[in-house]
Design brief:
Helix content: 25-40%
Shape: elongated
Oligomer: single chain
Largest sheet: 7 strands, mixed
Number of helices: 19
Number of strands: 20
């Protein structure tokens, strides 16, 4: 979440049975005694079950109560049997007959077992957080999950240190923000990542993930542990997985691709820019690279295989075979229409390359040139000769020098006058910065 959207609430510690609309923390309720209608102690509350089918404020449906026995059995108590649930303890409407065999309904989440201490993806803020506590809301006789607590104060509360820490800070630093606010993220903005249970299912909305920058998504994957990383990557839509791979370090790329079947890996690689795909596949074991290439569509595989024949520090490896192509006989208006059609598949749309049918490069013009030209102006009258064409074997250092010397956004790579691909400035920077 952004700072403007993050919600801060003062901590409320009720001294009397609280009215509707008040909050309580999960850590204040678990570990407390469960008593029957007559006050007899039946056991200890160890968990709360919530209905995961409600995305905004999941309702608590039942409790788990550990009964005093040699085997330490855990029983289920329906929320309908709960008379009150306070930090001082839980009172049931019935006696021992309310304790039912332990079971988990289809959409239920054990909050303490499967959410506390879990990592979550905050899709508004594009980062990984760890759940230190849960903030529960009393509403119309129900108990609902309202927020996850990702702040340090939540961890202190869980550890049982809050009274001592609060007292110390009140004495030494009474104005500390720690004493005045809690760091909460609304439940609806996060999705739990649970590799060990099917009950907390990864369900990242496509719309939400579409708003996460690929670099942020790569960082999220890096931050997760191995099992949770596998859950997220396997469930990502193909296009988001491809974007994330392009922004990931080689070691993480290798690990992520090992987590999926060759057919899915091939689908992901096909969505990547060919030069990025070639760089990534060159880092994999030869057997795995061959397996992925064999599963790819033949035209896509041939392009990547051709790039793999070039040394990694040459223009041939750095070039992208997807670029804007125009014909010399087009008018500026026709060229703009062609750019619109091609831009759906081409990542960089700054420069347009004018080529003949045999791929011979005639000239180059920028999108700005097209926008400023008269609609009827012919392309061959607007274009100009590119000042720094490259050959596939040109080293990365030379590419960087030419890009800087002529202040270029893109450089064509030619062989025998025919255009093979285009190196863009982002590829130059990547090579210079990271080698």
């Amino acid at each position: 979440m952004t700072a403007a959207n993050r919600i801060w609430y003062p901590r409320t510690v009720p001294s009397q049975p609280p009215p509707e609309g008040t909050f309580v923390f999960l850590s204040e309720l678990i570990g407390r005694p469960a008593r029957g209608a007559s006050g007899e102690r039946l056991g200890k509350v160890v968990d709360f079950l919530a209905d995961a089918s409600e995305p905004a404020y999941p309702k608590v449906t039942a409790l788990r109560v550990k009964v005093p026995s040699l085997r330490g059995e855990v029983k289920r108590v329906e929320w309908a049997d709960v008379a009150s649930c306070e930090p001082s303890g839980t009172r049931l409407k019935r006696g021992a007959e309310a304790l039912q065999p332990l079971k988990l309904q289809g959409n239920e989440i054990p909050l303490a077992q499967d959410v506390l201490d879990r990592q979550i993806v905050d899709t508004d803020d594009a980062k990984v957080e760890r759940v230190n506590d849960l903030h529960l809301l009393r509403a119309r006789g129900d108990l609902r999950v309202a927020h996850v607590d990702v702040g340090f104060r939540g961890l202190v509360r869980r550890m049982g240190w809050q009274p001592a820490v609060d007292a110390l800070l009140k004495r030494l630093k009474p104005g500390s923000p720690y004493l005045r606010r809690e760091q909460f993220v609304p439940w609806k903005h996060v999705q739990p990542l649970a590799a060990g249970t099917s009950k907390v299912r990864l369900d990242l909305a496509r719309r939400a993930m579409a708003e996460v920058h690929p670099s942020d998504l790569a960082e999220i994957l890096e931050d997760l542990d191995r099992r949770e990383r596998a859950v997220l990557f396997r469930d990502l839509p193909i296009e988001f997985a491809a974007d994330a791979l392009e922004e990931s370090e080689p070691g993480l790329q290798r690990e992520l691709l090992r987590m999926v079947e060759p057919s899915r890996a091939a689908d992901i690689v096909e969505k990547m820019q060919p030069d990025d795909a070639a760089d990534m596949l060159s880092e994999l074991p030869k057997e795995q690279t061959a397996e992925i290439l064999a599963a790819m569509d033949p035209p896509d595989a041939r392009v990547v295989e051709e790039l793999l024949t070039y040394d990694e520090n040459t223009a041939g490896r750095m070039m992208n075979t997807e670029f804007l192509r125009l014909q010399p006989a087009m008018t500026a208006q026709q060229a703009l229409s062609a750019v619109r059609d091609q831009a759906r598949e081409v990542a960089q749309v700054h420069d347009c390359f004018v080529v003949q049918r045999d791929r011979r490069l005639l000239g180059v013009l920028s999108l700005r040139d097209l926008l400023l030209a008269a609609p009827e102006a012919p392309v061959d009258a607007i274009m100009h000769e590119h000042p720094a064409p490259l050959e596939p074997e040109d080293r990365a250092g030379k590419v960087a020098e030419l890009a800087a010397k002529y202040n270029l956004f893109s450089l064509p790579v030619e062989r025998d006058g025919k255009l093979l691909g285009v190196v863009t400035v982002d590829d130059v920077l990547e090579k210079v910065l990271h080698g």
